[in-house]
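Batch queue: ligand-bound targets. Current item pairs a single chain with 2-acetamido-2-deoxy-beta-D-glucopyranose. No template structures supplied; prediction is de novo from sequence plus SMILES. Inputs echoed for audit trail.
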Amino acid sequence: MAARRDGPLMRGVTSTPFRRYRLVVAIAVGILVGCVCAYLYPDGLFRSSSSSLRDTIASVNSHQDASVQCESSERVNMLKSELASLSEKTAELKKQVRDLNMKLQLTERKRDQAQEQFLALGPQRKAGPFGTVKGLRTNPTVLPDESVNPRLAKILEDVAVQKELIVALANSNVKDMLEVWFENIKRVGIRNYLVVALDDNIEDFCKSKDVPVYRRNPDQDVDSIGKLGGNHAVSGLKFRILREFLQLGYGVLLSDVDIVYLQNPFDHLFRDSDVESMSDGHNNMTAYGFNDVFDEPSMGWARYAHTMRIWVYNSGFFYIRPTIPSIELLDRVATRLSTQKNVWDQAVFNEELFFPSHPGYDGLYASRRTMDIYLFMNSKVLFKTVRKDANLSKLKPVIVHVNYHPDKFPRMKAVVEFYVNGKQNALDPFPDGSEW
Ligand SMILES: *[C@@H]1O[C@H](CO)[C@@H](O)[C@H](O)[C@H]1NC(C)=O
Ligand SMILES: *[C@@H]1O[C@H](CO)[C@@H](O)[C@H](O)[C@H]1NC(C)=O
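Prediction returned. C-alpha cells below.
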C-alpha cells in the first residue's frame, strides 16, 4: 500500500545521481520544446480550437438570432395584417360617418324647411330680432293629382324613390349617347330613372336593355317635334312633358343624355329651392354671380355702373320641385317656345327665372340654387380647368355634362375612361374648345 502511495517521481528524487542527471536533461528538453513552440505558435497551440469554440458560440448565438428574427417577422406579419384590417375597418367606419352625416344634414334641412313653411304660412306675426329672420325659399309642394295621367302615375310609383327620379327625353338621333347615359346610371346603382321615348326605336331599345321607359299617349303637336325635331326643338319639349310629373307630385331631375353619371346625384341635392340647376359658368364668379362694373368715362364722376351678372343655368340638367312656382315656370317657358320664333329654350328658361317684374311684366318668383360647379361639372370646366389642375382632377364629380363640345360621344367615353377606369391620359387628346 505504501509503495503504491509514493509516486515514481518521489522515488526518482530520492534515487541515484545518474537518474537526477536524466531528470535535468528531460526538463531542459521540455523547456527547449516549449520555447520552440512559443516561437512557432506565438498565439498558442489551442488558438484554432479556441477560435472554433468562438465560432460555435457565435453560430449558436446566430441561430438564436435567426429564431428571434423568425419569431419577430411572424409578429410583423401579424401586425401588418392587423393594421390592414384595422385600416379597412377605419375606412368603413369613416364612410358610415360620412353617410350618416349626409343623412343628418338632409334631415336637418328638411326640418328647417318644414319650419320655414310652417312659420311663413301660419298667422301673421312680428319679425324676430336682428339676424334671426329668414324668408321662405322652400315652397310647399302641390297636392298630387293622379287624374292628370293615371298610367304615368302607376309607372312613377314603381320607378321613383322618395318621390324623386331622373327623367330624360330621347329619340333615335341620340341612341349612342343614351346607351352611355344609362350604362353609367346603372353602374352607379341609381334605380330611379326613366326615359321618355319619343319614337318606337328608342322604346324598343330601352325595353331590350331593361331600362325604365315611358311612351306618351299620341299627341299630334308633341309627336312631330319629338320624332323629327333637332336638338333644340326636342329640348323645348321637355317643359311640356315635365308638367305632368310635377302635377303627380314628383321632384324631377331633368337630364339631357350627353351626361355621364359618376355618383348618385340624389345624395348631393339641397332640395331647398324650386329650381336647383347646374351652371354654364366656368368658375366661381361666372357660376355664382358677380358685380360686373360697366365703365362709361363720358359720365365723369358717375362713370361706373354696376351690373349683376351670372352665367346661365343649364336647362339640360336641373332638379325641379313640384311646387306652384315650378309649374308656372314650365308653363311660361312652354308658352313662349310655342309662340315666339327663333328662341332658344335655355335662354327663355333663364329669362323667366331671373328677370324681375317691371312695367308690363310680372316676373316669376321661383327660388333658385346653383349647383356646385365641380360636382355638377360642365365640359368647359373639365377640359379648360380641371384636367390641368393636379388638385381638381383628383375630385370625383357627381356628373359631367358634355354640353360645351359638339364631339359629345367620344368625349363622354373619354370621361368614363378617366373617372371610371382611371386612365390618367384619357382626356389628353381633346382640345379645350371645339375646333369648329
Ligand atoms: C369657390 O367657391 C367655393 C365654395 O364657395 C370655395 O370653397 C372655393 O375656395 C372658391 N374658389 C375660389 C378660387 O375662389
Ligand atoms: C394643391 O393643393 C395644395 C395643398 O392645398 C397646394 O399647396 C397646391 O398649391 C395646390 N396645387 C394647385 C396646382 O393648385
